[in-house]
Structure formats: C-alpha cells, structure tokens
Amino acid sequence: MIEFIWEFHLTNENKSEQMKYRIKNTKTTLRVIAIYQILGGVLGIGLMGWLLLRTGQINGPLLFIYFLAIFLFGLSVHSGNLLLKKDSLKTGLIFSLVLQTLQVLAFGIGSYTYMFFSGARASIGIDFTNGFEFGFKASFSEFSFIINASEPEYFININLIAILVLSVLIDIYEELYKRKPDEKPEVTEPEQSDDLDFKESNEQSSIKDH
C-alpha cells in the first residue's frame, strides 16, 4: 500500500510543509525502485536482443544504436542493483537520477529522433508532424535513436512516470545525504527504528567514503 506521509518542521522559525511519497518507508521505496529498474532493464535488453536476431543486414551505425540501447538498459539493471546494496547506495542513487533524467523527454526534430524508456511509460505530448495533435501514450521498455530518417517527425513527449520516480529519488538523496541533522524530519512509529537504522548505516558508509 502506498502511503502519503505528511511532514511538518520549522525552518527559520517559519512553518514549512512538505509531502513525501513513500511506499511504507524509505528503505522499502528504494527496494521497489531498484526492482523496477532491474526489470525494466532486463525487458529492454531482451527486446533489443530479439530485434537484433531478426535484423537481416547490420551496418556500422545500426550496430552502434543497438549497443547504445543495450548500454542504457544495462545501466538500468546496474543502477537497480546498486540501490539494493547499502555500501553502494549513494552511487546507485546518482546513477538512478541520471537514468531517470534520460527518460523524461522524448522528441523528434526533423530527421532526428530520441526516445528511451526503461520500465513503464505514461507520457503526454504534442505531435507537430501532421498539424497539431495532443496525445497520451503508454508502453514499456522502448528505445529509438534515429539520424537522417526518411520521413521527418516533429514531436515532444514528457514521461510522467520518470518525473515521479525522479522526484522521489531526489527527495531520498537529500534526506540521506544533504539535509542537516536538525532539518531531518521525525519518523513516526512503527517505522521509526527501520528508517533511522537505515539512515545511520548510510551516514556511516558516507563517512567511510570520505
């Protein structure tokens, strides 16, 4: 069950309010995101492998595109794996932030197209190719990188799922590594011991890294 946790804390004697999106707690949320990224990457690599086997003649540029796709989906698997390990959590968060940022926008400008999704995609966008069309698209792991397409396209799509995951990752990174001790929110029972132990272990790991 997804719980929306409201936090109230004082900053410079003024009340501020912040809503945190967590699945039970921070530790569980990271596990869910890690598994999500691993599954999305595995699905993407499998899809690229299937397409590669079905492609008759492969030239240099096409092979480069396949390797680029496999690299990005492999990054998704690697980032998820890092999130599952306490000693590499900070690196996993950084990799995951980069990964999700690459999935926020998909666009086509004339003969150039870029589209990358590892996991679920729920995007809204505008297509200017044949007039002005506003639409919604949903799919799973997908990659498209086209240069000098025979039929020009003009569109831009924004992946809402990537934005949601990205915002959660940014908040978790700030919670674990950037906020000052007196700014860290209090965790209510029964999640207090689990989250605090998780934060302390990561703080100790961060000190060791320095």
Question: Could you please describe the fold and organization of this structure?
Answer:
The longest helix has 29 residues, at 26-54. The protein has a six-stranded antiparallel sheet. Strands 1-2 form a two-stranded antiparallel sheet. 49% of the residues lie in helices and 27% in strands. It has 210 residues and is an alpha+beta fold. It has helices spanning 26-54, 60-83, 89-101, 160-178, 192-209, and strands at residues 3-11, 14-22, 105-110, 112-117, 121-127, 133-139, 142-146, 153-159.
Question: Helix and strand layout, with pairings?
Answer:
Layout: E1 3-11, E2 14-22, H1 26-54, H2 60-83, H3 89-101, E3 105-110, E4 112-117, E5 121-127, E6 133-139, E7 142-146, E8 153-159, H4 160-178, H5 192-209
Antiparallel strand pairs: 1-2, 3-4, 3-8, 4-7, 5-6, 5-8
Helix pairs in contact: 1-2, 2-3, 3-4
